[in-house]
Amino acid sequence: MTDPSDDLRYRAQRAEFEFAAVRKDARVAYTLWALTGLIGGHRFYLGDTGRSIAMLFTLGGLGVWALADGLVVGRRVRAVNQTRRAAVMARYGIVDGS
């Protein structure tokens, strides 16, 4: 008979491993912002497809959105990672997904 705490530990380890595979890195996001900020490369990386396309066709809102994004890229990476981690943990039944 298996111990219930072993099952929870196993699920937690699998969830953390899965999260590590989908986690976004702030250094990559900032690098993409620096190199492709006008066309929204950093937003594509973070999964903001709609805003990325808008930036692509307006050249980053004529540079305004691209400059503003430089101030919030790190915060956006943290928000994306928090959402992804919560979804992964909820999938494994570790925390409530709401």
UniProtKB/TrEMBL annotation:
InterPro entries: TM2, TM2D1-3-like
Keywords in alphabetical order: Membrane, Transmembrane, Transmembrane helix
Transmembrane regions: 52-74
Localization, UniProt: Membrane
Keyword Repeat annotated: no
Transmembrane keyword on record: yes
Record membrane topology: Multi-pass membrane protein
Domain TM2: from-to ranges: 24-70
Main location: membrane
Species name: Paractinoplanes bogorensis
Domain of life, source organism: Bacteria
Name used for this protein in its record: TM2 domain-containing protein
